[in-house]
Structure to design on (86 residues):
């Protein structure tokens, strides 16, 4: 089993991906639309990704995007949160 990536790096990548697609992860957590456990699960999924450099490059190339990069392990959850912004 591949070791998980560095927690802070992946937390930052995940948060930036949310911002890039218009999903406010911190706001969703504060408003109760995202539980602490769901947040932790998303970070863990991100830490298991084998392409964090590709993710960082995607984020550097896209100030805004309609969806996460192809292959994002949190794409479904991010798109759901994007749809529940209010």
């Amino acid at each position: 089993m591949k070791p998980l990536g560095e927690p802070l790096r992946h937390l930052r990548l995940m948060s930036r991906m949310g911002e890039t697609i218009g999903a406010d992860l911190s706001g969703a957590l504060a408003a109760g639309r995202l539980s602490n456990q769901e947040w932790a699960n998303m970070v863990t999924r991100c830490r298991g990704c084998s392409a964090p450099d590709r993710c960082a490059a995607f984020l550097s190339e896209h100030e805004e995007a309609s969806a996460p990069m192809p292959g994002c392990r949190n794409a479904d959850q991010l798109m759901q949160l994007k749809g529940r912004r209010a």
Remarks:
- Residues 7-21 form the longest helix (15 residues).
- Residues 7-83 form one domain.
- DSSP finds five helices and no strands in the chain.
